[in-house]
Amino acid sequence: MKLSEIGEFGFIERFAHRFEDLITPPAMGIGDDCAIFPANELYDYVFTTDMLVEDIHFIRSKISPFNLGHKALTVNISDIAAMGAKPVGSFLSIAIPANVEVEYLDELMEGYHQLSQRFHIPLMGGDTTRSPEKLIINISVIGRIGKNQSRLRSMACAGDIIAVTGFLGDSATGLKVLLENHKTSWLTDYFVQCHNRPNAAVEEGIWLGEQNGVHAMMDISDGIASDLKHILKASGKAAIIETDKLPISGQLIEYAEAKRLNIIQLATSGGEDYQLLVTIKDSEFDSIANAFKKRFNKPLYPIGQIEEGKPQISYFNNGEPTSEPGSGFNHFV
Amino acid sequence: MKLSEIGEFGFIERFAHRFEDLITPPAMGIGDDCAIFPANELYDYVFTTDMLVEDIHFIRSKISPFNLGHKALTVNISDIAAMGAKPVGSFLSIAIPANVEVEYLDELMEGYHQLSQRFHIPLMGGDTTRSPEKLIINISVIGRIGKNQSRLRSMACAGDIIAVTGFLGDSATGLKVLLENHKTSWLTDYFVQCHNRPNAAVEEGIWLGEQNGVHAMMDISDGIASDLKHILKASGKAAIIETDKLPISGQLIEYAEAKRLNIIQLATSGGEDYQLLVTIKDSEFDSIANAFKKRFNKPLYPIGQIEEGKPQISYFNNGEPTSEPGSGFNHFV
Questions:
Q1: Is the terminal CB of chain A with fewer CB neighbours within 10 Å at N or C?
Q2: A209, A151 in Cβ contact below 8 A?
Q3: CA B243, CA B253: separation in Å to the nearest integer?
């Protein structure tokens, strides 16, 4: 059987249940952004790992080594942020083909170090090896969070407001610019920067994790159409998304008009924006959003609501039901 | 500059020092088998990660998927054992080329699961993605150990007896059999089994870590000629190895004679035996070795001694100085 027939999640489902009886709660494994290891009375450790493969996740000629090192770490600390945790250490495994020079690797480590320094995350170990052809980067990050304070995908409640921490669709547009070789302009530079040098919402994640009204949380890596479904499945809830409320940058509005792009599809299915997707208790949303605005000088954007029902998303546009704009990225197709 | 000019450790040295000031002791990073994270008054967590790349670390046609899954986890829990720690959770990142079928992956996960079950190590997360060509496996393992009880490479003292937990050279002979397509026999089957299905000395590592007289410890992945040097560098000590005392299996003695193989070179530079290499306080060696024999029904083999001096190994054969048998494996040559 071909893997493309069952996909990533189909493959994981084939073995994940067999390992379940080996876990001793309150430790927690497969099924969230991070695994959880209890440490002491005050805090837990959380743990995540992600692999970036050349020509699958990045094209070497389309991203500078500095940005590649920076982004590879970003996508991992984004998973830590999605638990509400603070990253405290990273591990880097790298398989290097013969045509990659030491100077390239120095720049890659420069990007990795700059981000490590910004959030004070030591590189604590790893593995370095040769690769026959492609550059492969696997990063693991450990985070720390207050005892039992991790925000899980299973914590969404009916009535919760669904919100995101920033613009959606800019990174997907940057990927489009790169793959289709759009003519360079200040606009395309903006999108490519969003795609090649994303920011992880580390401080936002820690802050949101401290608010009692914040229920489920995850980071947006595959697009909300796909990522929100993980929250719905884990929580056993349905959701509505109001597409007219999705936060879209002025740049994307301008570029989409010129290029006739489908903004809603880019914003819901594009992926790699690394904003946080949160569900917040209805009655506390306004005060949390106000405090968020004061703390980060930007809005927390409400885009829909959790409801009772089967784990699926209903889309509305200006109050009218509308069809699903497209589905999330599947690495195996 | 080509990476082959500076090697794996040369590359790591280019950036490792820049991350040192980001670590807050007692946490510990690059430079040992594992990194250490303090958990509470009773124990620490230790952490290791290793990447296996097709055609660099394994050849798909030369190892069954079951054994590949088993071995990929073994090499990681061996690093945990080398700290004296107990493995408590694993993480698997896997990049899968289109020509690998689901049935192959099922068998690989079967081998991974069998070992996980044997030592009660839950698989707690990971990442699954597509690969353009080669099968790539990155595994991370977390272990737990009594507070400040980790056995480090830096702990060797002058006068310590150097010992290993089992036969050396069998795995390297297995690799030779596979690469040179030796004619199959019960002997070659034994060596191939040693190479493709090695055992991690988990229980031995935990037991040795509980003995006060055990100082430095690491696992033998590249061969003692290379691995012992890490202990010597970290401890600032020299060592003598008595090549006539190296534990060699009856199978290797027989096969080496028939095939005219250099036993000492295989035993010191071959690698992948995953035995433990320990240094033990001289005055306590006999009692520890006796207790080890009672507990594991096999000897702890003394092979040399730590001395004051520059970090280098002097080889002796039946009391006479002899030359270095060859050097450890360098992935980049």
A1: C
A2: yes
A3: 14
The residues facing B145 across adjacent strands are B44
A residues 135-154 closer than 8 Å to B (CB): 136, 138, 140, 142
A48 vs A32: CA distance, rounded Å: 9
Which of the 8 DSSP states describes residue A243? Answer: G
Distance from CA of B110 to the nearest CA of A (A): 9
The DSSP output letter for B62 is G
Which residues does residue B86 pair with via DSSP β-bridges, in sequence order?
B144
Q: Please answer whether residues B84 and B210 qualify as being in contact, where contact means their C-beta atoms are separated by less than 8 angstroms.
A: yes
| Mean pLDDT of chain A, nearest integer | 92
Structure token digits, residue A82: 């999605």
Nearest partner of A125 among A94, A96, A91, judged by Cα? A91
Q: B315: which residues sit within 8 A by CB, 6+ positions away?
A: B240, B241, B242, B243, B321, B322, B323, B324, B325
Q: What is the pLDDT of residues A72-81, one digit of tens each?
A: 999 999 999 9
Contacts of A115 in chain B (CB under 8 A): none
Domains of chain B plus CATH, in order, are 3-146 (3.30.1330.10), 153-322 (3.90.650.10)
Peptide bond into A321 cis (omega under 30): no
**Between A186-196 and A170-179, two packed helices, what is the crossing angle to 10 degrees?**
110
Of B3, B100, B125, the CB nearest to A30: B125
Return the SS3 of B151.
coil
pTM of the model: 0.91
Rounded-to-integer distance, Cα B176 and Cα B171, Å:
9
B59 touches chain A (CB under 8 A): no
Summarised one tens digit per residue, pLDDT across range A179-238 is 999 999 999 999 999 999 999 999 999 999 999 999 999 999 999 999 999 999 999 999
Taking only the tens place, the pLDDT of each residue in B170-185 is: 999 999 999 999 999 9
Query: How many interface pairs between A and B have CB atoms less than 8 angstroms apart?
Result: 253
A39 backbone dihedrals φ, ψ, rounded to 5°: -110, -60
Tokens of A52: 């970036």
Nearest CA-CA distance, residue B78 and chain A, Å = 15
Q: Is the pLDDT reported for residue A17 higher than 90? A: no
Say if residues A268 and A144 touch (Cβ distance below 8 Å).
no
Q: How far apart are CA A209 and CA A155, in angstroms?
A: 12
Q: Which residue intervals of chain B are DSSP H helices?
A: 3-19, 65-81, 102-118, 170-179, 186-196, 202-209, 224-235, 250-259, 263-269, 285-296
As a whole number, the mean pLDDT across chain B is: 92
User: What does the CA dihedral B26, B28, B32, B34 come to, rounded to 10 degrees?
Assistant: 100
Query: How many Cβ atoms from other residues are within 10 Å of residue B299's Cβ?
Result: 15
Chain B: closest CA distance from residue A326 (Å) = 21
Query: Do residues B51 and A126 lie in contact, with contact meaning Cβ atoms separated by under 8 Å?
Result: no
Return the amino acid letter for A189.
D
Q: Does A121 touch chain B (CB under 8 A)?
A: yes
Distances in Å between the Cα of B104 and the Cα atoms of A4, A118, B22, B60, B92 are 14, 43, 42, 11, 16
